[in-house]
Each structure stands twice: as C-alpha cells, then as structure tokens.
Design brief:
Layout: E1 5-11, E2 16-23, H1 34-44, E3 47-50, E4 54-59, E5 62-68
Antiparallel strand pairs: 1-2, 3-4, 4-5
C-alpha cells in the first residue's frame, strides 16, 4: 500500500497482541482492500515465529503472513 502504519504490541510468554493505532489515509489506487486486510490481520495475530531471515504471523495457529529478509 501507500500508507504508513504505527502502533504498539504486548507479549506474554507465548502470545502477542499487535495494536496498529495510527495510519495515514492516502487513497491508494489499484490496491483494493490490501491495507484494510493487512491491518485486520495484524489486529487478530495471536502468535509469531521469528527465524533467521523471516517473521511469521499466526492467527489461531494458522499461518497468515510471512515477512522474509531479501
């Protein structure tokens, strides 16, 4: 997308809560609901896995997003 996000998170021993709080609201042509879906995914994420080159987000033990280092 073309907007910027910022927010907070909280963690316990095996759970994470992501709280995207602020987002710019530029109109992003050709992106559909990508940013809305991404923010929703972040707010529902309940666990993560961090490996050497990637971060994986999970919702109820289901892999929903992977961010990999290039």
């Amino acid at each position: 997308g073309c907007n910027k996000l910022s927010g907070n998170f909280s963690m316990t021993s095996d759970k994470i809560s992501l709280h995207p709080a602020l987002a710019t609201r530029y109109m992003c042509f050709g992106k559909g609901n990508l940013e809305k879906d991404f923010i929703e995914c972040l707010s529902k994420t309940d666990s993560i896995a961090i490996n050497k080159n990637s971060l994986t987000l999970y919702i109820q033990k289901r892999e929903v997003a992977i961010f990999a280092k290039k």
